[in-house]
Amino acid sequence: MKRIALLFAALVVFMALGAQAGTPAQGPTIRYHLDEGQVLVYRAVAEARIKGEGPRGDRRRDDDEVRTESESQVEMAFSHTAGTPHADGSTPITIEILDVKMRQAFDDGHNSRTIEMDAQGAKVYEGKKLVQEGTWGEIQLPGGLDLRVLLDARIEAVVDKTGRIGGFEHPDEMRQLLQSASFLHLLVHQPIFPDGPVVKGGSWKIDRELVFANPLRLRELVHLPGSETYTAVDAVHHLNRNCLKLNIRGDWPKNDLEGGEVKADGSGTAIVDFATGVLFTCTAKSKQRLEGSIHGARAHFEIENTSTVTYMGAKPLYDQYKAQRTPQG
Asked: What are 97's strand-pairing partners?
């Protein structure tokens, strides 16, 4: 009987999504909602690869143009904790990074460097040789990256009824964190819903800024304006909940930036809960193409990003992560 009831519920949602052509939209209206004190714990895995050609001023004249390759991988757990809902239906949330591991590697054909980081500290390799190792506070990394700062941060934000995350309480602090770790966009990877009903096959477009590191300007982040289009694919059953599957297409037109220009696009899928709008899983791919100049010479780069954000659990899991970081004794 339980299985029949679940199938019936899924069928009702599917029929609501499948409003017939020529009739007013009859689908459900999805609104983001969390109860006060509710905790969502997510796991994010992301990878970025950069390939490029450009000048290298400290090389011999016949070796000025070099090919560079770099990559980074990050795996982290983070949480959203809901505060007291506002009168307009928006919800304040506290975002925390509970655990993180990161690897960065760079190779220009002459030198290679790899940095491995976790919650305790970092190791630096030149080629395969370990040249530096230490805990946070002891080791100094290029660019000043310190994962301990990320683990100690509490980011205060607001989610509105459509799922848009913004209203950061300390925007300067958020920008500083972004400056040291461009993967922090994963923390706010929540689909945004339309004002009206969601109908199977229906699409809606939202403005979405793409943020990524600029290889033409060391330690600078590009904030690229553009949009994402969501398409309601189907009703699905996930984690014993009635959910909506979305296709996502990102479009960021060619844009000028200091020292060059950039074009980007992306695609992905997501599964969200009908009842609360909460994201359960999201996969995304994007590609950026940059052309510009370094030291007056032409350079071009191609950046490929892949990421997965998956819901893992609620407050008991959050408490486990917190207990692991609490000194014992």
From this structure: 78
| Contact (Cβ atoms closer than 8 angstroms) between residue 294 and residue 59 | no
Rounded CA gap, 248 and 281, in Å?
13
Determine the longest span between alpha carbons in the chain, in angstroms: 78
For 154, the token pair is: 């509490």
What is residue 25's predicted lDDT score, i.e. its pLDDT?
54
Nearest Cα to Cα of residue 207 among 171, 240, 175, 162 = 162
pTM of the model: 0.83
CA distance 171 to 80: 17
* Secondary structure (H, E, C), the chain: CHHHHHHHHHHHHHHHHCCCCCCCCCCCCCCCCCCCCCEEEEEEEEEEEEEEEEECCCCCHHHCEEEEEEEEEEEEEEEEEECCCCCCCCEEEEEEEEEEEEEEEEECCCCEEEEEECCCEEEEEECCEEEEEEEECCECCHHHCCHHHHHHCEEEEEECCCCCEECCCCHHHHHHHHHHCHHHHHHHCCCCCCCCCCCCCCEEEEECCEEEEECCCCCEEEEECCEEEEEEEEEEEECCEEEEEEEEEEEEEEEEECCEEEEEEEEEEEEEECCCCCEEEEEEEEEEEEEEEECCEEEEEEEEEEEEEEEEECHHHHHHHHHHHCCCC
Confidence of residue 296 (pLDDT cuts 50, 70, 90): low
Per-residue pLDDT tens digits for 207-226 = 888 777 777 665 577 778 88
Q: Does the structure show a pLDDT above 70 at 65?
A: no
Q: How many residues does the chain have?
A: 329
Q: What is the pLDDT of residue 219?
A: 57
- Whether the pLDDT of residue 5 is over 70: the answer is no
3 Cα distance to chain centroid: 35
Count CB atoms within 10 A of the CB of residue 259. 15
